[in-house]
Amino acid sequence: MTLMTNKANVATTIVSTTELAAHLNDPDWIILDCQHDLMKPEFGHEAYAAGHIPGAQFIALDDDLAGAKTGSNGRHPLPTVEALTAVFSRLGVTANKQVVIYDGVQGMYAGRAWWTLKWLGHDAVALLDGSLTKWKAEGRPLTSEIPPPKPAQFVPRANDSLRVDAAYVSMHLNDRAIIDARAPDRYDGSAETIDPVGGHIPGALNRFWKMNINPDGTFKSAATLRAEFADLLAGRKPEEVVLQCGSGVTAAHNFVAMEIAGLSGAKLYPGSWSEWCANPARPVAKGSKP
Asked: 122 and 66, same structural domain?
């Protein structure tokens, strides 16, 4: 499944493995490999070197898509616009390029790169539906060859209506639908494995990002996602939604899902739980209920 905007041949949410295969040699398509493992930071580089989709360039979650950590701004702080401009210029992203991003886990990490480009004003960006897992299962080509760099000047048009900070969340705990993308046992605080404090932002609803995908790793249909999010939001408008997770990474997966569902207007909290819980003055809720 490929979802398009009203511009011909522009994919803005997901593209199928079949369509990507047809564009492997298209100079107007840029493929980015965003493989990662939160528990093994070197995994992405190693996995890319071992085999990636032909023509794909590597984009690192920790190095390219996260800024400097201060101890209070979360595990994957959003980089500055200037830093990201340098990253996407190095990768050759320009306004006329279609960008396709994948990882090895159904978009868990690739969603961060997708959302970052959306925030910077590049709409022609999509996730590979089913990720590298589906690509491999279909017997499609892989290579260890590193493509030659083709840098270009990326021009950012940051849209800050797509993101919020901790102060915003604090002021809107009671009048916004906050959706937490973490696994239920991290949300309820019973099995926190990464951050020093267990629990969730008071009032936050839990929608584990894996709920967006089918058993084969592809995204659920637009109609199914729309119905599921409508049930979760219980009358709230997409514009009233704040998406968060542990460090602003898997929250982007829910952002993609809402876009597929036609529910545009949500905001993402990049600092997420890892930033929120770093300040002991901020309230914490535990248990399975908001």
From this structure: yes
Which residues are known to be catalytic?
245
Q: Are residues 94 and 211 in the same domain?
A: no
Q: Is the pTM of this model over 0.90?
A: yes
Q: Is residue 287 assigned to a domain?
A: no
Instruction: In whole angstroms, give the CA distance from residue 197 to residue 225.
Output: 31
Beta 14-15 vs 29-33: how paired, if at all? unpaired
Residues 6 or more apart in contact with residue 247 via CB below 8 angstroms: 74, 75, 76, 271, 272, 273, 274, 275
CATH number at residue 257: 3.40.250.10
Q: Which domain holds residue 250?
A: 161-276
Identity of the amino acid at 225: L
Residue of 121, 140, 124, 106 lying closest to 34 (CA atoms): 106
Over residues 177-201, the pLDDT tens digits come to 999 999 999 999 999 989 999 999 9
Q: Are 12 and 123 in contact (CB under 8 A)?
A: yes
Structure confidence by residue, pLDDT tens digits, 214-255: 999 999 999 999 999 999 999 999 999 999 999 999 999 999
CA gap 215, 33 in Å, rounded = 22
CA dist 260 → 61, 126, 255, 278 (Å)? 23, 11, 9, 33
Does 250 fall in a domain? yes
